[in-house]
Amino acid sequence: MSYSSQSANMRTLAKIMSIDLGYIWGERESGPNGAKRSFHTKGRAFLSALGQDLDFTEMKVIKNYAGIAVSGEVILMGMWKEGNGLYIQLSQDNIFKTCILYRSIQNMKDYSGGRNNYINTSEMAIGDYGSLLSGLLKFKEAGNEHIAA
Q1: Rg for the chain (alpha carbons), in Å?
Q2: What is the pLDDT of residue 147?
Q3: Is residue 146 part of a domain?
Q4: Most confident of 19-23, 90-94, 105-109
Q5: What integer is the mean pLDDT of 60-83?
Q6: Average pLDDT of 14-29?
Q7: Is 22 a member of any domain?
Q8: Of 18, 20, 89, 90, which sits most exposed with the smallest number of CB within 10 A?
Q9: Which structural domain range is residue 19 located in?
Q10: Would you say 84 and 143 are in contact if contact means Cβ atoms under 8 Å apart?
């Protein structure tokens, strides 16, 4: 995807994540409905394109709808040929207003990884995809020691 479409996706995700995704009214009480389904669909597309732009040699995108009262999460795990990688998670956090959690990983089964870093909804709403991408690429260059974005 182009930078402009990914920037638009960032703004759309920020807008979707600014409303309650854990409501129970809709097509299915315990599954994705309405905004929650949109979040997972748009989030998967956004993270898949992000993984390609980060030039991962190995990657997977995982959707977890979870249950009622929560947004669930969409996760990208990717590795570079240098042997380091990133875990990036989109989810709704109403307390801290964060929507992206990211950290370094050493392999595709590393679910704890390095130190957690966050991007909040207001930063996503700006839609600066270029800055997000360059910040995350610093993990590749610095061997997981750099804090991105």
Answers
A1: 15
A2: 45
A3: no
A4: 105-109
A5: 88
A6: 72
A7: yes
A8: 20
A9: 3-141
A10: yes
Tokens of 84: 């380091």
Of 86, 78, 75, 70, the closest CA to residue 32 belongs to 70
pLDDT of 26 over the 70 cut: no
Q: How far apart are CA 62 and CA 111, in angstroms?
A: 13
> CA–CA distance from 91 to each of 101, 114, 122, 138 (Å)?
8, 19, 14, 23
Number of domains in the chain: 1
> What is the secondary structure of 63-115 as a DSSP string?
EE---TTS--EEEEEEE-TTS-EEEEEEEEETTTTEEEEEEEESSTT-SS-S-
Mean pLDDT for 12-37 is 72
pLDDT of residue 53: 96
d(CA 67, CA 138): 35
Is residue 148 domain-resident?
Answer: no
The greatest distance separating any two alpha carbons of the chain, rounded to the nearest whole angstrom, comes to 46
